[in-house]
Fold Nicastrin.
Amino acid sequence: MAFPPYSRSVMEKLKGRAHRIAGLAVSLAKPRPASGFSPSVQCPNDGFGVYSNSYGPEFAHCNAIKWNSLGNGLAYEDFSFPIFLLEDENETNVIKQCYRDHNLSQNGSAPAFPLCAMQLVSHMHAVISTVTCMRRSSIQSTFSINPEIVCDPLSDYNVWSMLKPINTSGMLEPDARVVVAATRLDSRSFFWNVAPGAESAVASFVTQLAAAEALQKAPDVTTLPRNVMFVFFQGETFDYIGSSRMVYDMEKGKFPVQLENIDSFVELGQVALRKSLELWMHTDPVSRKNEAVEKQVKDLLATLEKIGAGISTVVLRRPDYSKPLPPSSLQRFLRARNISGVVLADHLNVFHNHYYQSIYDTAENINVNYPESQSPEEDLNFVTDTAKVTRLLYGFLIRANNSWFQSILRQDLRSYLGDGPLQHYIAVSSPTNTTYVVQYALANLTGQVVNLTREQCQDPSKVPSENKDLYEYAWVQGPLNSNETDWLPRCVRSTARLARALSPAFELRQWGSTEYSTWTESRWKEIRARIFLIASKELEFITLIVGFSILVFSLIVTYCINAKADVLFITPREPGSVSY
């Protein structure tokens, strides 16, 4: 099946006939559907943001704006049969050709045997819900020597860094003020681990990486009155896993920055700017009813407008005061404390992204393309006349396995880079590819190379002038030499660190929580598919009869041979003694 048949109406019909369907194989439609396609819901993360019956009830459940108006909710439906995505075009063509050769009728007659068939194997261990599967896993872990875990919570790590280093072994002073610059790392689609997320995630975190580099290299940055914390939240697609965990850790004193230290919060939403140069500065109308927050928000908006006035390619706009926040990490912080915050996005009302959280949210969706005549290395350093498409966009959206990404990672992490784009699904095995690459890209862009040996870099406590509580140290491959034959490894010192992004619900063992995300992923033994030819019922019956006849004949022959064994097989006499 290919798009457009792969739609909610068709899938609901198939779901109603699940007893007749063993599986479904979906091929990637090219070109993408012009009308858009989003398997997400119209109100992303509904119930886990700040708006509720007790806080801005007029905005709860997206009553004011259905942000993802094209969302059909397919990714949140339960299907009792496996659904596979056919990504390899060659394999897809083989399957289609097999179908055409054997299954298509000619002249209105029924197709002749043999027929082409396909087997899909995708046995999942998890059952019913997170509460049930986590309880079973917990019982297995408690009483079994070899426990069989049936599901795992979605988890990974947030990436964060400070503009000015802080001592991570302690807490910031209560009067220390921090500006949080945040964005999300993850996306999803209908299919497991297929999450290109070009507009929903990549454009935003690439923009923040570039902003972090620019700010770090600005003159007199150490004299700024407030520190800046750059945060890349993981798992936000699944009910704000990363941001809710950071808020929880701040409240419990498990993170060096506390909620009381946050002066303001600036978040990058979807900022691909495909349709216009306008960026809308969304704020929360409920918290702005507080006079102190209102004043801080106005000052923040004025500061952003002053900065934006010097950038001719972007126009900052203020939405109407009564408009709510779009789905954003800021909402989780507002649940804990009134904070002056702004979410920058390229949409005033509904998302401009018509492929939100779908397999079609690719580089093409944000107009990232390259001349066909160029090599991968030329694409990596390619700059268009209208927009400087950075190496970051190329690495995350086109080809992760490139010379620059290789140079900023540790040698043992090179296997994380594939020949295609990175996928931004949070998963259960962490850190994921995206998390590692963003951490090391942030370290490379904002850190500095220090003159340490490999041993000193891996254990800086042996160097009196270095401080592991202030910095992170990474021994990376470094750039190629002038002959491009060998890497020049080096030690990079930065403030880029990882912080756990596991929902507090699993730490608290509240698997049915409505306060925190409770998403889990089933375990499975193997996922595979195969095609083969099946014979007609008549041929199968003839084969059965012939086989049975051969079996009966062999039994008769075996019986006869056994009955006449003394005749057919004469035992030779033993030689007697001979005398001469």
